[in-house]
Amino acid sequence: MPPKKKNKYANAPARGFATTSIPKAKPMVVEPEPEPEPIVETAPPPTSDADQTKSSAAEDEEPEDEFVSLAERLEGLSLKKVDAFLGQTQKINVDTLPVLKMENNLENSVLALLKEVEAKDAGAFKANVYLNNDQMVAKLNVTYLALLRLGFEKEDIEEALRHTYTGESEDALDWLCLHLDSEKLPRGFADKLYHDEEMKISVHASQPYAPSLPDSATMSLPATRQEQERNTPEPLPVQEQVLASAPATIEKAWILQAALAENSDEEAEDPNERYVNYRMTLTELTQALAETEVPADRKAITRKIDTLNSKVNDLDIDFTFNKKLAESMLKQRIIEDKKKAKKSKRKKEKEQEALKKATPATGEDDGSDMLGTMWDLEGGSAPAPDGASGDQEHSIKRRQMANPSWSGGSPKVVLAEFCRKKDRHSKVAYKKASRSTPTAAMAIVTVTWGSGSISSAGMTDEGCENMAEAENYVATKLLYELTPLPLYRSLPPTYRDLWLEWIDEKESAGRMAKKAVDGDRLSFIKTLAAKIPSRGNGEVADATEQAEEQGRDSDAQKDKEIVITPAGKALQQSWHQRLKRPAHIKLFEKRRELPIYQFRNQLLRLLGSSQVLIVSGETGCGKSTQVPQYLAEFMLEEGLGDQCDIVCTQPRRISAISIANRVSEELGDSRNSAGKPNTLVGYQIRLESRVAPSNILKFCTTGILLRRLESDKTLKGVTHLVIDEVHERTLESDFLLIILKKLLPHRPDLKIILMSATVDSARFSEYFNGCPVLEVPGRTFPVHAQFLEDAIDVTGYTLEEDSEYAVRFRKDIQSKGSVDVAGKGASRQTVYLQWENDMGDYTPGQEAETKMVIGDDDFLQGPALVNRTQQMLNRIDENKINYDLIQALLEYICFPQDRRLQQRATAPETSAPIPDQGAILIFLPGMPEIRKLFDALKVNRRFGDASQFSLWPLHSSISSEGQSQVFDVPPAGIRKIVMATNIAETGITIPDVTIVIDTGKSKQIKFDEKKRVTTLQERFVAKANARQRRGRAGRVQEGVCFHLFSRATFEEYMPEYQMPEIMRMPLEELCLMIKMCELGEITEILRSALDAPPVKAIENAIQALQDVRALTKSEELTPLGIHLCNLPVDVHIGKMILFGSIFKCLDPILTIAAMLSFKSPFVTPFGAENEADAAKARFKLADSDMLTWYNAYLGWRKAYQEDKPSRIYDYCRKNFLSHQNLTMMEDMKKQFLGFLVGTGFVRVDAETKRELSRGERFGGGRGISFCPVIPEYNVYQRSIPVLNAAITAGMYPKVMMRHDGLKAYVTGPRQDTVWIHPSSVNFAKGGATAAAAMSGPDQSPWFVFNSLVKSTRMYVWESGRIGQFPLVLFGGELAVKHHAKLITVDKWIQFKCHAKTAVVFKMMRDELDKILQKRIDEPERGTTEREERWLEMIVAILEGEDDSLRIEDKAGHQRHKDQNVFMA
User: Fold this and answer.
1) Could you tell me if residue 41 is inside a domain?
2) CATH assignment of the domain containing 964
3) Does residue 739 sit in the same domain as residue 793?
4) In terms of residue numbers, what domain contains 956?
5) pLDDT, greater one: 1338 or 179
6) What is the pLDDT of residues 87-136, one digit of tens each?
7) Which of 1274, 1303, 1322 finishes a domain?
8) I need a surface site. Which of 204, 675, 755, 1138 has the fewest CB within 10 A?
């Protein structure tokens, strides 16, 4: 059949009978005088048409009730939002999820602590000031309705809203779960003994359309009808059916009958029309529920509501259903119904007036009966049955229903046709009502259905002129009750209007019910919303005021007049006295010999006319020491010394110290007195500050200046800023240039000088708006460049094919399985086809290709010497540092007699002249290489002789004590050998160097895209760096440089310049610094850099910071982010270190952090894989690679401390450990601890602080200096759950799960499949299925990992098993779905958890954030008593998840495969 049209009421024609108007308020009931016989009510005296029109207009314009109007405005959107909120988790089957529970005693303890903390901290929830009053009212209304629907009591809801202030449903639910006893919470919200049965209830019980709906939980809409067909086992007589409703009002009985009716078989085919009908009927049912008190009726109505709600939900799967269109149709239906009702009411008034004029009054009438009778029902006065007193008979009204001109079917005909179509066995019968009188005929109609059920309708308070009209009246009434179809359109006009009148009356009853239902709630909400602060302009005003203040400061600085003060004159006189000292005069003469001196006046003149100046000076020109001095001298000579504050930055600590001491001495201070009272020069580096009030010139590292800019945005008081070595393009220096460019307009009095040896002056000048450039030539002697082939030639170095420095044929055979290899005596050995770096192995450089080995030594023909040199060149591996060749070169350089013997056997004319005097500078990539060469030379018979050689390591991490001797010329007969990193390229100058040995390597920080980790990789330097190193040999005389790479490598593979760090490093640290300095939006700031990084790299950095919760979604710093700013390490490592400090397991976490930042302590020699795996298995701990590493470290440390240090190599060889790697990790641990001490996060005594600031020491047989283990920060260093929690806090979101359904490991929201790498202790042949069988069902399926590398598969490296609690407490964004018993972490990690327990976890996370914030605000105060209680509580919860994981210290080294035992 075709779809039906919309249900629209037809316009009613003019009526010619009396009617009753509906007043806005319930009138006062006037008791009439008793009469012996029923009296038909007649119309009152006639009124004028003008009065009638005025009365109707006034009624139309009468304002609606405030709360009813507010309810109508909010109802549609509110109910929709409530449905959306409660239906968020319908598609999740929580019964299939792992259950998250907490022991009752622990949960009660946490709740008690939370309530105690809340009592002290009033206002735990902050008001939502971003909403205006109307928005807050709407939000509070949605929350109120949602909580009612969930089953909370009205009083509890209002108490929760008073305490939360946000209007958010989640906040209110959190408060309710924390403060209500379990027995007061709805089902499913708490996991207690008396709720044992609740876990068997379907999750549908907590879904939006719950069967038990409180009276006040709905908002009424204009009402419609539904078909009534009520099944009764024993049909009652018609009279008894009518009398059954006597205790209640007739109107309420109608509503109840409609609520219990069944749906019509004829439903609209259009799903949008069905939606409108369902919603209108739902509104009628909710009204009926609010007015019905009989439990059986309420249950039936609730069942009906559930059925309709289910049908509404089913519409979503119909592709023709348009929710937006259906809502629009619903609103239109409501508007049309209202218009029809008002129009009907006006017409009824007109008919009433006409009736009054035509019929004279039969008795006294004060007018109240006519207007009040209908509302007597609302007031509770029910009509009496037949035989009642005359008081009730007096209320019968007579109604004219004649339609003389109507030619269509009567209501009786329509009812008969309707019943026949519905049930062909139905019978319709009419009878006279017992209360019928000659003046007011009343009838009853009864329909007996084929099933035996009966439907009936009667007349109670109205009568007609004759019985025919009365029968049509009751036929119309029964039709109205039986069907929602618009059958009134086919009825005569008077009966049509009667039908519309009933609709109007029901709407009015609904409005009154709405007021009763919604009034109290909305009144409370409006009162509460008025008390909550709304959106304000305070922040805008503060920002404007701050901007104006900065503008005033800028203008004041610009217009500031230079005034010479008495203090400035005193410093001027003191300076003049210094100039007369003999020592100063002698040093000044040496200074005049530097090339930069010729440009002194030009430099000062350019700086006077420009705010920024670039000084591009070649090596040896003296710019680093002289330019800052020229500025200080100028200010002192002008009498402005007291107004002078010159800051000079250096990229490294040792550069800042050495240059500060040198400049201090040249300015007339005592030697090595920088930073002392009454000196002019001071310096400040990490963990060491030597600055006095008299210092007018201060040297510092770039990082120190950036830290100052975090708190001092405009560098108040600084007059000159000198940035040295900008050519290195470090991350910090490029970021500093960004800040300075933004700072220049606000500090017009600040002078900036950029200095470098090989600066791209044009680019820098353009970046600073075309600032002037001063080119200064260098002062160097010629340097002879020798390459690898020359070194092989002059030393006669020979390399065997099986040497560790020779090129080998290798293939990448990772994860290819294993093969059986036959050996002697019919023996067989299983060899894994997997390659892992052994001790001291290298990472091949990307810039240089590995050369192929020429196997035949006779392949090259020609002179024997050329053949041998070329063979060695082809055989040697340039990617490895050849320590044997370095020692051979040193012997060739330092022992002329050996050199002369060598020259007789070679071609002396091809070798460069070797200076017999001067220091030897060896460039090495990093500290491990320096240590290895230093140890090798110490044990060398020749170079270990202190009477002939002085060995000096030079590295930024080495103690500054005695470093000054590196720059001194040794006594005659002693030759100085300095082993340094690229710090000696340009940052510092060793004046007596004549020979340089350059390995051509440096350690460069690079972000590994595959592993998603930051690594320190060994790579070839750029050509510009190689030339800088070469130039160091020509400072005092003609020199020579041996480059230990071939000429072809230099010319073909090395880049011209080194790539800026901002282009190759992760940007997380830089993003944090941008937010700390409050520079603005991250992407915009980084795009303004000299070399802007890729947008993708910026986005990845921001996402990584948000993953670790260092930044919010709006890119605002969190407390954790502020701390990570102070830790110059990878953000994951930094976060792990912070949590290791907080949870008092610092030493193991520092050890694990160092290993993850460097290398594994284990080595796997080629061919000994089985033995290496067995050795690793002896250290296995808690199914964790990280804890296994730490266990191996404990064994190594114990062996070193308890046994002879000389036997440590035997221990390492036996257990396949790298002593070199472990020693390097110990140094890194001390650096990490130094960062924590420097930021105040860890408090130590003065002696420990001095020990950390001294750094690494060499020589003297002192051995390894272990990192201090501070007892108060290592209380839980043997608690595996606490260690796993700290690791999880740092590594998250690097989490995977063993999915037993998929029989694989999965990670991330997309459930990507990953595999555990065979090198892990968690690797099992057979994958996740075998691992599940080995671990058992009780073991946690969750793992945390460090890196993800894709080769033949997506492999997880360095993994560790963790519990559920660390994920919930330290994972990502935590969401609690209270009503669904669901808790999620970043939406993809899901657990079934009762709301009360879930809120406990949520509040504990909030307390952790507060602890971090407190550490930021007051780092020097340490942990408070409250924080200690919380930390102890969290530790107890972590250890309570699995008591078997709690390990105490155990003596000895006996181990069991099922036990977790620490090695020390």
Assistant:
1) no
2) 3.40.50.300
3) no
4) 784-806+852-1062
5) 179
6) 766 667 778 888 888 888 888 888 888 878 776 554 455 555 556 777 78
7) 1274
8) 204
Report residue 1461's pLDDT band, with 50, 70 and 90 as the boundaries: low
Let me know whether 790 and 736 are in one domain. Answer: no
Of the chain, the end-to-end C-alpha distance in Å amounts to: 85
Does residue 792 sit in the same domain as residue 933?
yes
Among 742, 764, 779, where does a domain finish? 779
> Is 46 exposed, middle or buried (CB count within 10 Å of its CB: 0-12, 13-18, 19+)?
middle
Same domain assignment for residues 650 and 685: yes
Same domain for 793 and 685? no
Q: Say how far apart CA 485 and CA 280 lie, in whole Å.
A: 13
Domain count, the chain: 4
Contact 1341, 53 (CB under 8 A): no
Across 433-588, the runs of DSSP E, i.e. the strands, are: 443-448, 454-458, 462-464
Given the structure tokens 């009434």, which residue do they identify? 477
Query: Bridge partners of 1193?
Result: none
DSSP 8-state secondary structure symbol assigned to residue 339: H
Residue 240 is assigned to a structural domain of this protein: yes
Q: How confident is the model at residue 1060, as a pLDDT?
A: 87
Assign 67 a pLDDT band (cuts: 50, 70, 90): low
Is 675 in the same domain as 689?
yes
In the structure, what pLDDT confidence band is assigned to residue 1193 with cuts at 50, 70 and 90?
very high
The share of the chain scoring above pLDDT 70, in percent, equals 71
Structural domain contains residue 773: yes
Closest to 572 in 3D by CA, of 636, 630, 634: 636
Pick the most confident of 375-379, 526-530, 1247-1251: 526-530
Task: Report the distance separating Cα 841 and Cα 837, nearest Å.
Answer: 5
SS3 call for 1347: strand
User: Does residue 1293 have a cis bond before it (omega within 30 degrees)?
Assistant: yes
Q: Contact at 8 Å (CB) between 726 and 755?
A: yes
Confidence tier at 61 by pLDDT (50, 70, 90): very low
428 by Cβ neighbours in 10 Å (0-12 / 13-18 / 19+) ranks as middle
Q: What is the pTM of this model?
A: 0.60
Give 738's pLDDT tier (boundaries 50, 70, 90).
very high
- pLDDT tens string 240-291: 333 333 334 444 444 444 444 444 444 555 777 888 888 888 888 877 777 7
Q: Which residues contact 654 (CB under 8 A, 6 or more apart)?
A: 954, 955, 956, 958, 960, 963, 983, 987, 988
> Chain-wide mean pLDDT for the chain?
75
Residue 1331 and residue 1324: Cα distance in Å, rounded? 6
Q: At what angle do helices 788-795 and 864-875 cross, to 10 degrees?
A: 130
Asked whether residue 492 carries a pLDDT value surpassing 60, the answer given is yes
Contact by Cβ (8 Å): 592, 629: no
Could you say which DSSP state residue 1077 is in? T
Number of other CB atoms surrounding residue 156 within 10 Å = 17
Other C-beta atoms within 10 Å of 490: how many?
A: 16
Burial class (CB in 10 A: 0-12, 13-18, 19+), 1387: exposed
The answer to whether residues 790 and 775 belong to one domain is: no
Residues 797, 752 share a domain? no
> What is the per-residue pLDDT across 304-318, written as a single tens digit (0 to 9) for each?
887 888 788 777 666
Proportion of the chain in helix, strand, coil states, percent, rounded to 5: 50, 10, 40
815, part of any domain: no
Ramachandran angles phi, psi of 340, nearest 5°? -65, -40
The answer to whether 165 touches 126, Cβ cutoff 8 Å, is yes
Residue type at position 472: N
